[in-house]
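Can't paste images in this forum, so I'm doing it all in text. The chain is below; anyone willing to post the predicted structure tokens underneath?
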Amino acid sequence: MSVDDKDEASWEPGPDEMQPAVEVVGRQLKLWREGAGLRPAEFAAKMGYGENLIYKIERGARIPRPEFLERADEVLGAGGKISAMKKDVERARYPKRARDLGKLEATAVELGAYGNHNVDGLLQTEEYMRALFDVRRPVLTEGDLERHVAARMARQEIFCRTPLTTLTFVQEEVTLRRPIGGRMVLRRQLEHLLELGKLRHVEIQVMPTEREDHAGMMGHVQLLKLRDGSTVGYSEAHLTSRVVVHPKEVQVLELRYGIIRSQALSPRESLAFIKELRGET
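Text version of the structure:
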């Protein structure tokens, strides 16, 4: 890996409440470097990274990756004090919206989601999500794209977490036909859905386009039943996201999602449908 390549070994922080923590870590790194009597160029050479990256991290413009902090700890002889800051920057590597959703999913015993535009984020392959973020406008920077992909991939730990979380999904037929990223990307996405659908705690259903009665015309629905017995909803729009906690609003979402599931193909029928689509792709 070249020095220029290693300059990308960091994340660009998002404009949210985690930015002060990133700046504190940067200042601490600068103090340790200066305390060791190293100029930025000398520190960069010992680290094996570009000098420009050192400046960016020290002023809080970049989030250092765990391996950067571990290497800095060794170079500066910090005895684990710099490496310990990995916990402080771990959450900052992800966009705030993804962190908020991740917090809810981490305490969910049941999760249900109806998707009417794209394959649900928890069901996406990495190449599908990269293609999806790549077509976003305005265009994401490479750093932002990587942060979004990393956050979405991290959320998929919910499939193997113990105790198992019951997961149900309803996907509009059109989301399984739209060739985001090209035909082969879509084909591998369909194959991934077939594999996930085999898991005993996962149910995937398809809402056929030809359905006349459809309770999901108001858009995306996501419901999470938490460990304390409460249920919350989560909704996203173009520029905002919202956690739904008011009992009457949650009740409406639960009603809609229940009807949506009853109107969709059964899980067994849905897997057969997806298998047929894969054959056509």
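The beta strands are 10-11, 63-64, 108-115, 166-172, 202-207, 221-226, 231-236, 241-244. The CA atoms of residues 94 and 222 lie 20 Å apart.
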